[in-house]
């Protein structure tokens, strides 16, 4: 699925990382941010965010439908997808756009591609209603897809969160579908796939290599 988002044209730089639960996004991004700071990037010029935001994560309907928390009442997944799009639009208006406008580097753990991957995996790829709702979101300057075999990701999640086979992120079927959706998105949209089998240090070194090259290219365009 080719995604259509908006070009931001601001002086800031938007960097996002996606991938299945346990791919190592948060760990690698921590090291990546440390590296850009140690190369001279001012810490105060970096805005670190995650998606979905707490607006979505703490919502009772989301918690009982997706996260198996609360009273177990199920809500309509299409409606919650629309909420997922609203959550991203809200975070962009309140936090991402103001930061990019003043030249900051915005680093986000997950992005709207996670919403797409989730619904692509569930609806066999047919989600035009969701992609249309998201057309005003910014196209990131760099999109990393962290990729590792589902067995490895599941193992990491169960060690981190405790074993719970009822959770989709500890099941081979859904994790394989999510991974395939990310790979399909990456191939169609030229995202940067990085193997996250290796330790987070190695993963962040590869992120740095891509970041330096993209920064160099963007300076040539000015
Ligand atoms: N490259 C790696 N090699 C081995 N273990 C890792 C690696 N990256 C992360 N881990 C470990 O695996 C667990 C999951 O990592 P992390 O939270 O960074 O993944 P994530 O993709 O952000 O997961 P989620 O989406 O579920 O939040 C953590 O306990 C972390 O210490
Ligand atoms: C619909 C939808 C679901 N998710 C999922 C992916 C993860 O399992 C969790 C987010 O938790 P994490 O703390 O970032 O691991 O929710 C999503 O991220 N976005 C969505 O739109």
Can you walk through the features of this model?
The protein has 222 residues and is of the alpha/beta class. The protein has one domain (13-221): P-loop containing nucleotide triphosphate hydrolases (Rossmann fold, 3-Layer(aba) Sandwich). It is 53% helix and 12% strand. The protein contains nine helices and five strands. A five-stranded parallel beta sheet has the order 2-3-1-4-5, sandwiched between helices. The model has no long low-confidence stretch (mean pLDDT 94). The protein binds adenosine-5'-triphosphate and the ligand Cc1cn([C@H]2C[C@H](O)[C@@H](COP(=O)(O)O)O2)c(=O)[nH]c1=O. Residues 21, 52, 66, 84, 110, 114-115, 118, 169 line the site of the ligand Cc1cn([C@H]2C[C@H](O)[C@@H](COP(=O)(O)O)O2)c(=O)[nH]c1=O.
- 3D shape: globular
Radius of gyration: 17 Å
CATH fold name:
Rossmann fold
- Strand-residue proportion: 5-15%
Number of domains: 1
Bound molecules: adenosine-5'-triphosphate, the ligand Cc1cn([C@H]2C[C@H](O)[C@@H](COP(=O)(O)O)O2)c(=O)[nH]c1=O
Based on the structure given, which CATH architecture is correct?
3-Layer(aba) Sandwich
Number of strands: 5
Structural class: alpha/beta
Number of helices: 9
Look at the structure and give the mean pLDDT.
94
Helix/strand order, N-terminal first: EHEHHHEHHEHHEH
For CATH, the homologous superfamily is named as P-loop containing nucleotide triphosphate hydrolases
Helix proportion:
40-55%
**Sequence of strands across the biggest β-sheet:** 2-3-1-4-5
Unreliable stretches (pLDDT < 50, length at least 5) are none
CATH level 1 class label = Alpha Beta
N-C termini distance? 30 Å
Quick one: biggest sheet?
A: 5 strands, parallel
């Amino acid at each position: 699925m080719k995604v259509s988002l908006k070009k931001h044209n601001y002086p800031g730089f938007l960097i996002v990382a996606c991938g299945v639960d346990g791919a190592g996004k948060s760990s690698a991004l921590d090291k990546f941010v440390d590296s850009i700071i140690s190369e001279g990037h001012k810490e105060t010029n970096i805005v670190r965010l995650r998606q979905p935001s707490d607006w979505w994560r703490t919502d009772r309907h989301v918690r009982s439908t997706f996260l198996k928390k609360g009273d177990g009442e199920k809500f309509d997944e299409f409606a919650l997808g629309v909420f997922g799009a609203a959550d991203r639009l809200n975070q962009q208006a309140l936090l991402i756009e103001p930061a990019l406008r003043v030249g900051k580097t915005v680093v986000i753990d997950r992005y709207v591609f996670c919403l797409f991957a989730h619904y692509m995996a569930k609806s066999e790829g047919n989600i035009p209603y969701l992609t249309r709702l998201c057309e005003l979101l910014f196209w990131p300057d760099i999109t990393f897809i962290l990729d590792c075999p589902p067995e490895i990701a599941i193992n990491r999640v169960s060690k981190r969160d405790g074993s719970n086979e009822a959770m989709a992120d500890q099941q081979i079927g859904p994790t394989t579908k999510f991974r395939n959706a990310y790979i399909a998105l990456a191939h169609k949209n030229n995202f940067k796939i990085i193997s996250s089998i290796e330790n987070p240090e190695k993963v962040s070194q590869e992120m740095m290599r891509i970041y330096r090259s993209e920064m160099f290219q963007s300076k040539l365009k000015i």
